[in-house]
């Protein structure tokens, strides 16, 4: 499974549109600003890369925002940011906007993630959830209000739901994997584009159930209880091993950065992306994600070099 996913990701390093950029290099080294926004799931990796990069390049300021994958794409396709962190691939309607705005970009996978379903640490009865039970909970028009509505053996206590907002790529991926269509979901849940808000909500609510990226669970494992998911082959808990080998189904996925062709021609942006690809594997694992195979980073670097030099991605 993972080998097929890997090949698909390599093939997905594609370029559309066209663009141009300006050099920005000051005497004595790089200077300028690199603007990044988008996914809160990808944020921990990008933040770690930005901190290390700025320590070596003190003339460059890297800003990293969290407006969700969709919110980031809106800014990216208007040319307001240089890089969009994305926990899903670009949507067809966003590709159309890119064409209309003459925006050229490169999709660069940076790590694997496993969307983690979590409950409060005081919850002693949830041993696992099936994909069908998750669908029953999260589908539009769901009548699930109590834990006992999921399984009759569970207590008749209220079930409080927490999840990413509708601009989140994690929300898109989860709803497509569980409910069959992106954005197809019940609406009566506590939503936030900031996963830290969701962590705080679930950890403070004994009747809570939520989901977000694996990194946020791992960072807060002492405050949360992760729920194994049965995708049809028995319950599997998200771990670095199960995410990497694809057995954590159906919630394992790649995560990306989208790089602007106009921006990457600027030396400070090119240097940041190069640094990301050189150190992203190590830093991804340090913040709780699964690194890609080394050859994928090398392939991405070749594509970025072509993009920065004004060549087509396939040249």
Structure, briefly:
With about 325 residues, this protein is α/β, with parallel strands linked by helices. The protein has helices at about 1-10, 45-55, 70-75, 90-100, 130-140, 170-180, 195-205, 215-220, 240-245, 260-265, 265-285, 295-310, and strands at about 15, 25, 30, 30-40, 60-65, 85, 105-115, 115-120, 130, 160-165, 190, 210, 225, 230, 235, 250-260.
List its salient traits.
16 strands; 6-stranded mixed beta sheet; 315 residues; 12 helices; 5-stranded mixed beta sheet; D-Maltodextrin-Binding Protein, domain 2; elongated; disordered N terminus; alpha/beta; single chain; 2 domains
In the CATH hierarchy, what is the architecture of the largest domain at level 2?
3-Layer(aba) Sandwich
Shape: elongated
**Name of the CATH homologous superfamily of the largest domain:** Periplasmic binding protein-like II
Helix vs. strand class: alpha/beta
Strand order of the largest sheet: 1-7-16-6-4-5
State the major sheet. 6 strands, mixed
Mean pLDDT figure: 90
Portion in helices: 25-40%
User: What's the β-strand tally?
Assistant: 16
- How much of the polypeptide forms β-strand, as a percent range? 15-25%
Termini separation comes to: 29 Å
């Amino acid at each position: 499974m993972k080998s097929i996913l890997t090949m698909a990701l390599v093939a997905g390093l594609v370029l559309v549109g066209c663009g141009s950029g300006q050099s920005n290099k000051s005497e004595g080294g790089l200077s300028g600003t690199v603007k990044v926004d988008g996914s809160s799931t990808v944020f921990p990796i990008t933040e770690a890369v930005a901190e290390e990069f700025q320590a070596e390049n003190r003339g460059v300021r890297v800003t990293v925002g969290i407006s969700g994958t969709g919110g980031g794409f809106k800014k990216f396709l208007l040319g307001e940011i240089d890089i969009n962190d994305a926990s899903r691939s670009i949507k067809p309607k966003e590709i159309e906007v890119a064409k209309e705005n003459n925006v050229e970009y490169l999709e660069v996978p940076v790590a694997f993630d496993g969307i983690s379903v979590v409950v409060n640490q005081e919850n002693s009865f949830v041993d696992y959830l099936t994909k069908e039970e998750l669908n029953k909970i999260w589908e539009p028009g769901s009548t699930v209000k109590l834990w006992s509505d999921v399984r009759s053996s569970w207590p008749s206590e209220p079930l409080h739901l927490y999840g990413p907002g509708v601009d989140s790529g994690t929300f898109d991926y989860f709803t497509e994997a569980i409910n069959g269509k992106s954005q197809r979901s019940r609406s009566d849940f506590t939503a936030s584009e900031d996963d830290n808000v969701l962590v705080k909500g679930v950890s403070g609510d004994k009747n809570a159930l939520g989901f977000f990226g694996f990194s946020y669970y791992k960072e807060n494992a002492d405050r949360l209880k992760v729920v194994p998911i049965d995708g049809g082959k028995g319950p599997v808990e998200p771990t670095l091993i199960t995410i990497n080998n694809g057995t954590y189904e159906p919630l394992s996925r790649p995560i990306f950065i989208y790089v602007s062709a106009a921006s990457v021609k600027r030396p400070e942006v090119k240097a940041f992306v190069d640094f990301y690809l050189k150190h992203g594997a190590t830093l991804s694992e340090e913040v709780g994600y699964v690194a890609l195979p080394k050859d994928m980073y090398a392939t991405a670097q070749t594509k970025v070099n072509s993009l920065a030099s004004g060549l087509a991605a396939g040249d």
